Amino acid sequence: MEDPTYLWECLAPHQLRKHICHSHIRTEIFFSLSGPAGLWKAGRLYLGTWGEAASAVSACPPDCPVTLLLAADSTAGPAGGPGSPCPAEEDAPLDLPEINWILTDLSLPELQDLCAEIGSARREWTGLLAEKMGEDSGPLAILTAFSRHTGSHLFLLNGEYQVICGCPEVFFEDPAAKMLLEGFQLPPETRREWGLPELTGSQDQYRGKLFQAYWYLQRLPGVGPSGAAWLWLSASHPLDGPGLLRLLAPSLAAVLRRTEGTSACSRFLQQLLKPLIPDMPALRQLERSLPYPLEGYFSCIVIRFSPQRTLPYAYFQYRLGALFPRMNHGVYQGDVVLLHTQSRRPADRLDFSYPQFQALLEEFSATAAVSNPTRRRKHLRTMYQMACDTLQLAPALKQPRDPSRIFPQEDYTTYEVIDLCVRQFIQLHRHGDIVYLIHPAIIQLCRYDQQHHSNLRDVMFYYLISDRSLNKTAKKMYMHRNTVLNKVNKILEIIQIPLDDGFLQHRLILSCLILQYYEKVMGRTLQL
Q1: 82 to 33, 77, 88, 183: CA distances (angstroms)
Q2: Which of 92, 168, 199, 427 could, after both became Cys, cross-link 227 (CB 3.0–4.6 A)?
Q3: Is the whole model's pTM more than 0.90, yes or no?
Q4: Model confidence at 226, in pLDDT bands (50, 70, 90)?
Q5: What is residue 216's predicted lDDT score, i.e. its pLDDT?
Q6: Of 450 and 251, which is predicted with more confidence?
Q7: 469: pLDDT confidence band, cut at 50, 70 and 90?
Q8: pLDDT tens-digit profile of 234-290?
Q9: How far is CA 119 from CA 18, 110, 225, 249, 452, in A?
Q10: Which residues, 6+ apart, have CB-to-CB distance to 3 below 8 Å?
Q11: Calpha distance 327→291 (Å, rounded)
Q12: How far apart, in whole angstroms, are the C-alpha atoms of residue 127 and residue 498?
């Protein structure tokens, strides 16, 4: 019995009198007082009537801590009179320092049934855990199963009350669980208001009552620095909370190791991305601190949250670890950075589920940039910086109808080249009027579009990147083919330049991209 308080709470509605002097209970099995005399064992729970207890203690007083749960005799009264279930104070020979006893108003069969129900909970929990482990369930599935079974709310938290994982369902009115589900943490001001402890001391267990709910906290051992991981349980009814939390702790070892791995990866990123790039021997030494080796080809995935969103790093990283098993990831400068590795060079996409990753990013109002893969470890910093550049450019430059939150660097590499050129242009010329890099034909089309409220510049761009196919252009621009044909003829009439020269096509496409950068990234309008 992990928590004798739970036993006292279960018996409280039926309690007549009690004498509690120790908490030494080490079993969920209930032994009968009607057995052989003198067989007291430390920590045992004994069931019987008041008369049986008085006789057993008088015959052989226990010399070790025991607990007696008693049904009242129907023949003993307050003054020894018949018909009362409660014995008189002077009839109580059980007030010894080795004995806990609780006298109830239940008959012995009723008390036995109640104790059997209390004792069966632990056996049910053990069976459920064995079932979930047999299914190779993850921590989220285990916590959800036990939350449903007990009607309670279970969460795995870090030392700052931030959610690593937890049951997504609500079983009763519980402000703490609601905040953990919606905000992924209990903020410091809320913890102070509710009187919750700071998880920085040496204490391993806490318990209390909040808004009519019982809550329990249990530190999980062997999880890195002090207070790194805690189990939170809240229930609307008496529950052997510490017993349940201790039962679940071993099954959560995998996610706790993953939590430590994210901290190691964060330290790796802090060292790797310092202004002074480490040499190869130093880089190899840094790699040894990672939980998983960097093998084959690797890419840097940088994940950035919306600035308006509460940052649930712990819970997000747990979900990320389920999608990217055996991948290093950590937090650096407010972003979550994942080092994705695979043995073969990817032909196009990396070997993970893009739809599942997209759904995760949507859930957390986040976006991600995926760098090009490389085998050169010394360029990890470059991969990170280019992924960050992609995250800066892509939201402004992606197509309005594109719902994707995943931005491959390759899709925006040309814009990154333009971005580098613009920075150098501004440094050399002391202004940002980069229209001087644009072909005059594009300027002519922009002037015509402004005067006639048309879109010839866009038609020119899509026509050229579609290999001058009218059908492909019409499909991309949601136009009829004949409409595109008329617009192309008008373009040729205005610019007076044939479009069959490959180098000219490239020059015009690049000019359109520079103009898009000028308008969407720099936020400037072309002065015509």
Answers
A1: 23, 6, 12, 61
A2: 199
A3: no
A4: very low
A5: 92
A6: 450
A7: very high
A8: 999 878 888 888 788 777 765 555 555 566 777 788 877 776 666 778 777 778 878
A9: 20, 14, 35, 20, 84
A10: 240, 241, 242, 243
A11: 8
A12: 78
* Overall size of the chain counted in residues: 528
Q: State the Cα–Cα distance between residues 373 and 78, nearest whole angstrom.
A: 84
Displacement of CA 1 from its chain's centroid (Å): 32
Burial group, residue 11, by CB count within 10 angstroms (0-12, 13-18, 19+):
buried
| CA–CA distance, 423 with 521 (Å, rounded to integer) | 13
Q: How far is CA 171 from CA 157, 235, 383, 428, in A?
A: 19, 9, 46, 64
Nearest to 166 by CA among 315, 373, 55: 315
Q: What is the pLDDT of residue 283?
A: 76
User: Looking at this protein, which amino acid is placed at residue 200?
Assistant: T
Say if residue 59 is exposed, middle or buried (CB neighbours under 10 Å; 0-12, 13-18, 19+). Answer: exposed
> Which residue pairs, CB below 8 angstroms and at least 24 apart, start in 288-291?
289/264, 290/261, 290/264, 290/265, 290/328, 290/339, 291/257, 291/258, 291/260, 291/261, 291/264, 291/265, 291/328
Residue found by looking up tokens 């014995």 in the block: 87
Q: Per-residue pLDDT for 136 more than 70? A: no
Q: Is the pLDDT of residue 314 over 60?
A: yes
Mind listing the pLDDT tens digit for each residue in 325-371?
888 888 888 889 999 988 888 777 888 999 999 999 998 889 999 99
Q: Which two tokens stand for residue 294?
A: 């960097």
H/E run at residue 300: strand 297-305
Helical H segments across 156-288, by residue range = 175-183, 188-194, 241-248, 253-272, 280-287
DSSP string, 445-474: HHHHHHHHT--HHHHHHHHHHTTT-HHHHH
Rg (CA), the chain: 35
Query: Looking at the predicted structure, is the pLDDT value of residue 149 above 70?
Result: yes
Checking if the pLDDT of 416 tops 90, the result is yes
- Within 13 Å and on the Cβ side, how many CA atoms surround 349? 8
Q: Which amino acid is at 20?
A: I
C-alpha of 269 from chain center: 21
Handedness of CA 311, 315, 320, 326 (dihedral sign): positive
The per-type count for the chain, helices as H runs and strands as E runs, is 18, 15
Dmax over CA atoms of the chain, in Å, equals 120
pLDDT number for residue 83: 41
Helices (H), 151-214: 175-183, 188-194
Residue 190, pLDDT score: 93
The phi-psi region of residue 257 (left if phi > 0; otherwise alpha if psi is between -120 and 50; otherwise beta) is alpha
Residues 6+ positions from 369 with CB-CB distance below 8 Å: 301, 302, 387, 388, 390, 391, 394, 407, 408, 409
Whether 227 shows a pLDDT value over 50: the answer reads: no
- Nearest Cα neighbor of 256 from 276, 230, 286, 275 is 230
β-bridge pairing 335-342 and 297-305: antiparallel
